[in-house]
Amino acid sequence: MKRRSLQEPTALILCAVADQPRHGYAITQEVKEISGGRVTLRTGTLYSALQRLLEDGQIEVHSEETVSGRARRTYTLTPEGRATLVAEAERLRATAAEAERRLAAHRPGPKGAIA
User: Fold this and answer.
1) Do residues 81 and 10 lie in contact, with contact meaning Cβ atoms separated by under 8 Å?
2) What pLDDT, on the 0 to 100 scale, is given for residue 108?
């Protein structure tokens, strides 16, 4: 079965928990860093995405603790989530390679040169 490409915020969330388990706030900070500040996840967006990823088996709760009276969950990739992220990285790499190939094929030469 062919996988659908991921929306950028979803791919960034998976990437944020790929190297170590993280809780919600840490995920938002990691996504901001990974994206060079382009993507800032709002709380509602983050937690609805996390719920969807949990339901899809892409991530799982690594641990739960209570901090200042509030529950804090940390999330980590499942084997399925790791496979999804690997496939997404491959898809992006292939797209970038094709874009570079096509751009290189039509690079303008020096001024006045005949191609």
Assistant:
1) no
2) 74
